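Hi V.,

You were right to ask for the full record rather than a summary. Here it is.
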Amino acid sequence: MDSGVTLVAPETVFLSADTQLGCDVVVEPNVTFGLGVTVEKGAWIRSFSYLEGAVVGAGAIVGPFARLRPGAVLEEEVHVGNFVEVKAARLGTGTKANHLSYIGDAEVGARTNIGAGTITCNYDGFNKHRTTIGEGVFIGSNSALVAPLTIGDGGYVAAGSVVTRDVAPDALSIARGQQVDKPGRAAEIRARLRRKV
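Predicted structure:
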């Protein structure tokens, strides 16, 4: 605190002996720093986040309720929000993963948006594989990226996709089942269920 770090409720923050916090860092209540964490100038660590073996770049925002596991590197101005877990992955400058995502064994370029519910599927039951996501990529919500996989700069992945092949730069990838509507079928099902009661 004497070095310019703001601990909103210092009695609720747990630090390791090697925790390094830069000046103008803000740490909200109920944050835990495991071994090997460096937080650079002006970063903001929000409540109920857990960090271990991670580097948080200048001006980055982590949490609330985020988990950074060993090998997580967030470059400047990265946002990792609610219920996002990052492990053995580098997120480039200005990248955002604001909620409900798992980013593991990955390299993510600058200014990329990772939609809610996105998962890098890095483990096949035997081995870990890497996902590489370029700069300026948009990953739609609820997407599964099955590694090994590369998504080129400027690529766009449609929401709800399960991507199993590389995506070329500036390409749109849609990898989901086609919607089929059956008019009147819902009413038939309800009527059938009522007759059983």
